[in-house]
Each structure stands twice: as structure tokens, then as C-alpha cells.
UniProtKB/TrEMBL annotation:
InterPro entries: Dimeric_a/b-barrel (IPR011008), Rham/fucose_mutarotase (IPR008000)
Protein name: L-rhamnose mutarotase
Entry coiled-coil feature ranges: none
Pfam families: rhaM
Segments passing through the bilayer: none
PANTHER family xrefs: L-RHAMNOSE MUTAROTASE
Source organism superkingdom: Bacteria
Length: 123
């Protein structure tokens, strides 16, 4: 599984409309996101229109390709593109990916693997 986090900038003057467009998202677009193999998908909006997105997928390249070929996603992204500042291309294809530097479960698993195994001593 791959965890993907990305950043976009929503034009501050369009924030209210952007939020309204996501409450709710078109049912057919939700279905396409799921069919592409993206799950646990969230968007977080910060001060000034800073948008952070996160999702998990087994094959991000395949998910990207699926959505790039989807007429539903093309319609959605065409309508959404006007909300973003400094973006060249479709938002779902041109968002700036962020580099993951920490994940709790991964580090706990690595720490457990490094921990010395306690040996039981016979009484």
C-alpha cells in the first residue's frame, strides 16, 4: 500500500464555493475515485486556502491513469481547475506531492523488529 499526500492552493476568494462543491461531491465522482483504487481519501483546508489531500492506494500510477481516462473525472476536474492558484493542468494530475518523513505504524514495526528478543530461562 502507498500513502499519498499532496498540496494545492485554493484561491482565497473562492474558498466558500470550493467547500460547497465538496459537500457533497458528485456520487459518480465518488464512485470513480473508489474504482480507481483510492481509499481513505481526505482533504484538509488550511488558512489562506492551503489544501492538503491524503489517500491510500495499492498502485498510484494505475489510479492516476484510471482517473485520467475517466470522462466523469475529466468533467469534475474541468470544473474544479478554476479554484486553484498556480496549477498547470488538471488538479488530480498536477498536484504537488509531499514527501512522507514519518509514519507511526512503520516506525513501531521497525522498532519491534530491532528490539532484542527476550529469552526465557529455565527455572
Amino acid at each position: 500500500m502507498t500513502r499519498v499526500c499532496f498540496q494545492l492552493q485554493v484561491a482565497p476568494e473562492l474558498l466558500d464555493e470550493y467547500i460547497a462543491r465538496h459537500t457533497p461531491v458528485w456520487p459518480e465522482m465518488l464512485a470513480e475515485i473508489a474504482a480507481a483504487g483510492r481509499r481513505n481519501y481526505s482533504l484538509f483546508l488550511g488558512e489562506g486556502g492551503r489544501l492538503i489531500g491524503y489517500y491510500e492506494t495499492d498502485d498510484d500510477a494505475a489510479a492516476q491513469a484510471y482517473l485520467a481516462a475517466s470522462p466523469v473525472a475529466a468533467r469534475w476536474e474541468a470544473e474544479m481547475s478554476r479554484f486553484f492558484v498556480g496549477l498547470d493542468g488538471r488538479p488530480d494530475q498536477a498536484a504537488t506531492p509531499l514527501t512522507e518523513i514519518f509514519h507511526l505504524d512503520d516506525q513501531l514495526a521497525a522498532a519491534a523488529a530491532r528490539a532484542p528478543h527476550e529469552e526465557s530461562t529455565p527455572s
